[in-house]
Amino acid sequence: MREIFKKQFQEELDLLEIKLEDNQIDQFYDYFEILVEWNKVMNLTTIIEMEEVITKHFADSLSLVKAVKDLSEKEYKIIDVGTGAGFPGIPLKIVFPQLNITLMDSLNKKVKFLNEVIDKLGLDGIQAIHGRAEDMGRDVKYRGQYDLCLSRAVANLSTLSEYCVPFVKVGGSFIPYKSGKIEEELGAAKHAVFLLGGKVEGLETFLLPGTDAERSLVLIRKNSETSGKYPRKAGLPSKEPLK
């Protein structure tokens, strides 16, 4: 099983032009095994088949290299909002160990899983925190502290931007991972992004390896401080998205 894993993963890494040491690929396999084991007692992901985990979780997480070309060179400070089972933050940390990563999730049981993965894989410079984006985005310990905010969470772009842009430093970027055609959603979110101090600066669209699944990385640059009005109290960003 491990050898089959390595073969497929290496093929997908080649498509992303990522080179890994054997011990890093072993870390991914160990991560996969921990994920499957914990998923038996906790709903972490509906994707547990090895081939799908490699493509839809691991390779997808690492596709950030398409939007951030100097990811291997900089010591970016990154927050992964609504990380769930650790995607994209943990795969990025394994491949680019110089990154400083904070994983944030609103479910404490998922944070316990994340800490187990961090411990078992021996990862440094990565922490998992429990909290809601609406609350943490107002906390001076986290607000405006990050070069990059990432999220694969399922929410419309206006809502997701209100959750995430407050975490970003002026000059930094919020990069959401989105599925399918997003032009209409992107158009609808542009004013919300502007209200939060950001601007849509780019869109990287691609197919996941060996699939017809279209993915997009939206590059939102933060040009000015986010107003103290945002994020609004818990529940409002999803119930009444900014327009």
TrEMBL record:
Q: Which residues form the signal peptide?
A: none
A GO molecular-function annotation: rRNA (guanine-N7-)-methyltransferase activity
Give the keywords, sorted: Cytoplasm, Methyltransferase, rRNA processing, S-adenosyl-L-methionine, Transferase
InterPro entries cross-referenced by the UniProt entry: rRNA_ssu_MeTfrase_G, SAM-dependent_MTases_sf
Which positions bind S-adenosyl-L-methionine?
82, 87, 133-134, 152
- Asked whether the keyword rRNA processing is assigned, the reply is yes
| Protein name in the entry | Ribosomal RNA small subunit methyltransferase G
